[in-house]
Amino acid sequence: MTALHDIEVFYDGDCPVCRWEVRFYSRMDQDHRVRWTDIETLRDEALPAQKTRADLLGRFHVRDIAAPKDDHGTDTEWHIGVEAFARIWQVLPGFRHVAFLFEVHGIRQLTLIAYRLFLKWQSWHRRRRSR
Fold first, then answer.
1. Mean pLDDT of the region 77-106
2. pTM for this structure?
3. 38-44: long-range contacts (C-beta < 8 A, 24 or more apart)?
4. How many alpha carbons fall within 13 Å on the CB side of residue 77?
5. Contact (Cβ atoms closer than 8 angstroms) between residue 60 and residue 31
6. Are 35 and 29 spatial neighbours (Cβ–Cβ below 8 Å)?
7. Nearest to residue 48, comparing CAs of 31, 69, 24?
């Protein structure tokens, strides 16, 4: 990991939509501000403290790399779900100037609904892959 990374993104490498998004965002990340971590290839001992594989696969997780740790050594700056997408947008050129849109009430509600629908699809897709 280089000192340039601002955030670490935990993504489902078996999810075709997730892989597409990571490729898309990676091309924009010329300054290497994002560390991309495929949950499916992550060894159990490399999982973040207080997080299980099921936690990370259940909802989208981003953590601030330089964030302080609490008294138990646990990362204190996690962004989960829609907040995780907003955090990615905050560090990527081309998106950082519009990241505030995640805070606009009507837009935020729409993104929450869309994200919930995506989670249902992804859960169905993961069950189908595991058969």
1. 91
2. 0.79
3. 38/11, 38/12, 38/13, 39/10, 39/11, 39/12, 39/13, 40/12, 40/13, 40/14, 41/13, 42/10
4. 11
5. no
6. no
7. 69
